[in-house]
Amino acid sequence: MNAPDVAVSPDTPSPLLVERADDRVVATLNRPDKRNAIDQATIDAIHALCAELEADPRILIITGTDGVFASGADIAQMRERTAADARAGINANAFIRINELPMPVIAAVDGWALGGGAELAFAADIRIATPDAKFGNPETGLGIIPAAGATWRLKELVGEARATELLLTGRIVDAAEALSIGLITGVHPTADLLAEAHAVADRIAKNDRAATMATKRVLRAPRADHPHVDLEEQAVLFESPEKHRRMTAFLERRAAKQRSAE
């Protein structure tokens, strides 16, 4: 991968370090002195990265630094925000953009993922974590609601009853419980977390790019759009040269195995 992006001023490091490869990008939240709290500069960097990945789709891995994914939104900034800021959906729109990227997004979570940090993780397509990961939305204790996606994404991920209990109590969920309720798909040692995220990305990258993006689009479609949306996406893929190439290769491999078994 290329070296991480850094801000122009050496005294102001980028809040989001970005490493790029041909088929994937790794974005590392980089405000360790603020426990990776998501501030306006982070949101601006997320929008810039999304613009890049919308133009040149690649798998995205999002992770944190120093044993923290993201401790939440930057409270010092949030305290000063007004009704107009709330209606602007500053964090919500950035996380929607993350979720709607053409290629899959993987969140690799170590340590705290709270408030806006949890909502960023919820916006990913796949979440893996370390045993030290902790998820929670304590916003009501601060006099606000989790308005950057948790009130609707969490229901889709873990069911309405579980989401209701977690959001109304603000209870913290550890990695073991997160795995048991389907919030994450795997728990891995801290030292292996990024490698495991790359292993997931490797499996995705082996598949047909067009079929992967079509699958993500269909997964995001409203229930009322099915099965029409599935059939239209499949119709396009049925005419693709890559579908023919891959199916031909599959049949040739199977025929070769049958001959060797005889």
UniProtKB/TrEMBL annotation:
<dbReference type="Pfam" id="PF00378">
    <property type="entry name" value="ECH_1"/>
</dbReference>
<dbReference type="InterPro" id="IPR001753">
    <property type="entry name" value="Enoyl-CoA_hydra/iso"/>
</dbReference>
<protein>
    <submittedName>
        <fullName>Enoyl-CoA hydratase/isomerase family protein</fullName>
    </submittedName>
</protein>
<dbReference type="InterPro" id="IPR029045">
    <property type="entry name" value="ClpP/crotonase-like_dom_sf"/>
</dbReference>
